[in-house]
Amino acid sequence: MYKRIILPLLFRFDAETIHHTVTTLLKFTLAIPGVSAICRRLYVLDDQRLHRTVFGLTFPNPVGMAAGFDKNADLVSELSDLGFGFVEIGTVTPRPQPGNPRPRLFRLKADGGLINRMGFNNKGAGPAGGRLRHFAQNRGGRNVIIGGNIGKNKDTPNESALNDYLISFRELFDAVDYFVVNVSSPNTPGLRDLQEKEPLTHLLTALQTENRQRPSSKPILLKIAPDLTNGQLDDIISIVAETGIAGVIATNTTISRDGLQTNPTTVSQIGAGGVSGRPLRERSTEVIRYLHQQSGGAFPIIGVGGIFSAEDAQEKLSAGASLVQVYTSFIYEGPGLAKRINRAFLNGTVTSALPTA
Where is the Dihydroorotate dehydrogenase catalytic domain (predicted)? Predict the structure, then answer.
């Protein structure tokens, strides 16, 4: 019903507008007494066979919501009720910022993809931390791991980027279970320059120093672009080893337009932005496999990019990922996506078992 009736209706409206409308409606509906419990019975699979212990955290299942969907930590309860084992909020920046001018989110229906140039639009790390602390006090029995994806403000020069990351790290420290350092979005000018070996090593080393000063440290992961060369991926492997961070998220959106089925004129008219969804599936899997093989499985990888089915999720796990995340496919496939993937794992309808992390 979702793909035949609801999705065509949603696609008649501007992508960003309908995102806010649907998420507002979701929050309103699940706030009605009893509805949240019904939703959990429908969508949450509570089965110990799905549990995954990765970088010291026990995830109730291996399917998470990637950063970008819940930028301001407004939807952690609701996404948990829809069966996600973990939710990554953000990307958040120290100060609120509006992001890039609209329109900035576009559908590639022929490709099962999106192009976005949102530009880290968010309300700031402080308000996000406050909402997460409120959630922690009102979990209502929900078992969900929370990640905090952090970035720099657009007007912060790269030379001062570390301070931005430290501010958000400190603000969210007691509110999230793990951190993700985002230096791979294509939509903040100059941000990807921080992926180069020297500045990235400096940034991660400083965050780890701050992290280790705490009585109990938090796992820090690095989110990387799919557009890195093998040489740059080799640098990532070295940096992970040198800095001692917990792992990598592969991958962010791509600036490549290769292989798209959408009319080239339409794509050209959309302009700049990162491509997500099905067009990213193959490349993100290649990156996961390369990192896993070249490092000898030295660190956990969260796989994200083009996961529309249990088979897609298994492809990432077989390539070396320990967990997976979705975003674009949730829009195309509907609210039952996490349950369908987890159900397939439990039923053995995908080709292999969950890997050992």
Answer: 50-343
